Structures are given as structure tokens and as C-alpha cells.
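EI: anyone free to look at a 253-residue chain?
SC: sure, send it
EI:
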Amino acid sequence: MSNSTFNHFVDITKRLRKECPWDREQTHASIRHSLIEEAYEVVEAIDNNRLDDLRKELGDILLQVVFHSNIAEEEQAFTLDDVIKSITDKLIFRHPHIFGDTKVENAEHVKQNWEKLKMKEGRTSLMEGVPKELPALLRAHRLQEKASKVGFDWEKKEDTWKKVNEEMRELHQAIDEGNQEQVEGEFGDLLFALVNYARFIDVNPENALRRTVDKFITRFQYIERRLKELGKDIHSSSLEEMDGLWDEAKKGT
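SC: here you go
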């Protein structure tokens, strides 16, 4: 991309900010959801290997970055140049094996150095830097990864599975005792333990659950479609009928 192309794009966003009534009214807070939505659309394009969609969605992400920077510049907080300089400096600082004389042996060594360098940037805890807005499964996975970098982790996957079974027993006990608050807590502990096990078998739990949800949607929509073809209403269909069609759907997915 040439500088003229980028500058033309920035000029358009600034004109919209001045002349469009809707754009003019927006704040960081009012469009925060758009940034999240656009990020998920990028992920969806990647998951579906739709490169044309990915090109478009990355443009939408770029718009969000520039638009937030424009708002900040109006408030005299920072500029787009400041944003670019900040990420440039960060990349150089966090890659001393490229821009300095640090030696690394593999990608894992790079990740370990990365966490140490983050602490030098002023963070006081390894747990910082994982946004609360992340989906809970993904957040749990990232936090566990960070803890493992300093050796706070199980040694074998068998140990993590024992923890899963332990949390399962505690959940059943809480259910038997009828304490709903405790049930919710133990259920969370069980999910956290499963995320730990997922790491040890090289599974990203967020991606795994997303695929399962998509599979459920596909199979359920098959049931809806087949019932409609049979002239039946899903609201009055029996569980037995739907289970039979579910089994049909499973054969195709």
C-alpha cells in the first residue's frame, strides 16, 4: 500500500467525522461493540477460508483503528501517528532476537522471552494483558498459558484429567446439597479444569466449542428442513421424530 492510498483513506475518515451527522456523534464507547463485531467477522472469514471476505473484513478493522485515532486526536489525547509509533516500538522491543543480539532456539523460547519483556514494560502481574471481554473459555486458556510459562502447571496430562474427575465429583456433591451458588462455582471449576486438559492435548477449547456449536446448528437445521419437507411442524413433532432425524444428520456431518 502506498502512502498516498493510506493518506487518502485517512482523509476520507476525517471528512466523514466532520460532515456526516452519525459519524460526528460517535465516541470511543458508542462504537466499542463495532470493533468486537468486526474482529469476529475477521475470524469467521479465516475459519471459512474466504480470502475475499477476509480482505473486506480487515478493511473494516482498519477503519475502526483509524476512527478511534481520529476521535482521540480531536480530544488531543493521541494521534494515528502515535498509535503507529507505539506498535512499531513495541515490535522492536519484543523481538530482540531480530533487532538485537538475543539468541533464541525455537518458537517456545520466543514466547517465554515475550512474557519477560511484557513485565519490563511496566506490568506488575503475569495475569495482566488478557482482556476481560474475551470469551471465558479463551480467557481461561490464555491465563493458563501465561502461568505455565513460569512453571505453574501440571506435569502430565494424566494429572489434569484427575483434576477434571475431582471437579466433577465436587459438582455432583454441590448438586446433591442443593446449593445453587456452590453449583455454579463448581461448574466453573470443572470448565476451567477441562480447559487445562485441552492445553495438554493441544486443543484450543474456544475453537473446539465453536466448531461443535456450528455442527449443532447444521444438524438442527437439517431437522427443521426435513420436517418441513414432510409437512410437519417442529413445534408439534415428538422428540423421537427429531432424534431420528438427528441421527440422519449425523451421518452427513
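EI: The domain at 136-203 is CATH 1.10.287.1080 (Helix Hairpins).
SC: 👍
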